[in-house]
Write a sequence for this structure.
């Protein structure tokens, strides 16, 4: 089986944006609380806490913090899975003799996605239904092929929202062909084919390099924490996004 990801732009309403941002906020809070619990358990009692230990605490946590009820249960479980994967990666790097990098607390501004595991979402009548959020407008520019496994909702620094479906599907072999072409990647040109055809280098980054430098210079000149700083950061992020595409 082959794993593919289909990414679509979604257009939530103002009320849905508020719900999505609250979900991200609670997920970030849970991630940091889970990390603090693991750090304290090891520091105080030299005890390791597993994903299962923390998952089993979720019903009790939700009884103490009823506001967490706005977040789907599988979304909360995935937050703890992310934390567990971060620790697995830390121990793997430490065992391999690499610089491990202990898992760190996540700033709310940098916690930009949450995941539904197999349930809590569906595409109905051309819209994306999200549990606890509602039906969100989605631009399905191509059909989803295969069995959907998970859905991750992401928020970019430029304010855009996306739905990323991970699907499992059968691999499709390319049709047989007697034609073969050699490709030589270059610096002056993007590529040269064995047929003699030259594909020019578009140099997308060079065209936006001055614009990016100007945006970053204006960003660094503004005082941190001010509305103007947030505005300049978004402008620089848009230039980065354009270069990335």
């Amino acid at each position: 089986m082959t794993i593919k990801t289909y990414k679509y732009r979604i257009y939530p309403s103002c009320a849905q944006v508020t719900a999505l941002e609250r979900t991200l906020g609670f997920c970030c809070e849970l991630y940091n609380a889970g990390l603090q619990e693991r750090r304290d358990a090891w520091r105080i009692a030299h005890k390791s806490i597993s994903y299962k230990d923390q998952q089993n605490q979720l019903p009790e946590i939700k009884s103490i913090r009823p506001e967490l009820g706005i977040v789907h249960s599988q979304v909360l479980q995935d937050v703890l899975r992310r934390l567990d994967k971060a620790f697995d990666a830390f121990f793997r790097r430490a065992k391999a003799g690499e610089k491990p990098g202990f898992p760190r607390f996540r700033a709310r501004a940098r916690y930009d996605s949450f995941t539904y595991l197999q349930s809590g979402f569906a595409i109905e009548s051309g819209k994306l239904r999200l549990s606890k959020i509602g039906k969100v407008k989605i631009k399905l520019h191509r059909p989803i092929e295969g069995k959907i496994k998970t859905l991750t909702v992401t928020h970019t620094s430029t304010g855009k929202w996306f739905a990323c479906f991970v699907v499992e599907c059968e691999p499709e072999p390319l049709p047989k062909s007697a034609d073969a072409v050699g490709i030589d990647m270059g610096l002056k040109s993007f590529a040269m084919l064995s047929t003699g055809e030259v594909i020019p280098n578009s140099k997308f980054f060079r065209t936006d390099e001055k614009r990016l430098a100007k945006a970053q210079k204006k960003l660094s000149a503004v005082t941190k924490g001010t509305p103007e700083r947030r505005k300049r950061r978004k402008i620089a992020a848009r230039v980065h996004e354009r270069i990335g595409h």
